[in-house]
Design goal:
Order of helices and strands: HEHHEHEEEHEEHEEHEEHEHEHEH
CATH architecture of the largest domain: 3-Layer(aba) Sandwich
Distance between the termini: 20 Å
Number of domains: 2
Shape: elongated
Helix content: 25-40%
Largest sheet: 6 strands, mixed
Number of helices: 11
CATH superfamily of the largest domain: HAD superfamily/HAD-like
CATH class of the largest domain: Alpha Beta
Strand order of the largest sheet: 8-7-6-9-11-10
Number of strands: 14
Length: 283
């Protein structure tokens, strides 16, 4: 962490705050904190913007953007889509149909669950219906389809779930071959279910970090003018961007170790609102 005096100095330059959603912006009831609502609008009037960087799909975060009066692009699916609530798309990184078919064949071969993500919904088949219960994607619209035959196009992310770590990591190596030139498959342990392993597959070069670079360029902002807030392992890319890194009190140790400031409050106590208040007081 940086010193209090250094923090105050750096806060004076901030023009954009980008926050993760689940476990960060929202509480355990999937709602925004009251202080966040007040301070986000106050800061906007003072020229400081707010945006999101989340693994959620776009349609599941638009209500928060409307509530906070955010009209700049939002990063969803960990940077695969950068789009505002009016429909303007800054960036959209699609997986090729051939790679979608490859993932489906591997899922069938190794008996793992698979779902396909678009900007407004996640589709699944009856054989993969259990996947919904193991995915931490609040506010997401899921749609049951008979099969995946007509859903190879416009795919932003492929999600696989399994109980065997070695199987998921084997599929990861197959999807990343050769050398992550086309796809980037990332493996995670489930944050909510013990013994469940996730594989998230997106187009190569897509991450919260690369999304931050695109958003900063779009807004004509430098790294020192941006603060980011997170809590979980997939926010490492957000912290690697190089702005002012804020970890919530409930963040994993790895993220706290990379933080410039750690809030006193967790997400259920409106830790984001705490930081926005400090920012407002030091502009």
């Amino acid at each position: 962490m940086i010193t209090s005096s250094e923090l105050k100095k750096r806060l004076k330059n901030i023009k954009l705050v980008v926050t993760d959603v689940d476990g960060t912006l929202t509480n355990y009831d999937n709602e925004l904190g009251e202080t966040t609502k007040i301070k986000a609008k106050e800061l906007k009037q003072r020229g400081v913007l707010l945006s999101f960087a989340t693994q959620r799909i776009h349609s599941s975060i638009t209500r928060y953007a409307k509530e906070l009066e955010i009209d700049i692009p939002l990063m969803s699916i960990n940077g695969a889509l950068i789009k505002d609530i009016s429909g303007f798309e800054l960036s959209k990184s699609l997986i090729s149909p051939k790679k979608v078919q490859k993932a489906l064949k591997l899922a069938e071969k190794y008996f793992v669950r698979i779902a396909i993500c678009y900007n407004d919904e996640i589709i699944y088949t009856e054989n993969n219906s259990v996947l919904k219960d193991f995915m931490f994607r609040l506010g997401t619209d899921y749609r049951l389809v008979e099969n995946y035959d007509n859903y190879f196009d416009n795919v932003l992310e492929i999600i696989m779930l399994g109980n065997e770590k070695n199987v998921i990591k084997h599929i990861q190596s197959k999807m990343n071959f050769p050398y992550k030139l086309f796809l980037n498959a990332k493996y995670y342990r489930s944050s909510s279910k013990s013994g469940v392993y996730h594989l998230e597959i997106r187009k190569s070069g897509v991450s919260k970090r690369t999304g931050m670079i695109k958003l900063a360029r779009h807004l004509n902002l430098k790294k020192h003018q941006i603060a980011v807030i997170g809590d979980w392992y997939n926010d490492r890319d957000l912290f690697d961007f190089g702005g002012l890194n804020i970890a919530l009190q409930n963040a994993v140790p790895e993220l706290k170790n990379k933080a410039d400031y750690i809030t006193k409050f967790n997400n259920d106590e409106d830790g984001v609102g705490e930081f926005l208040t400090i920012l407002s007081e030091n502009l």
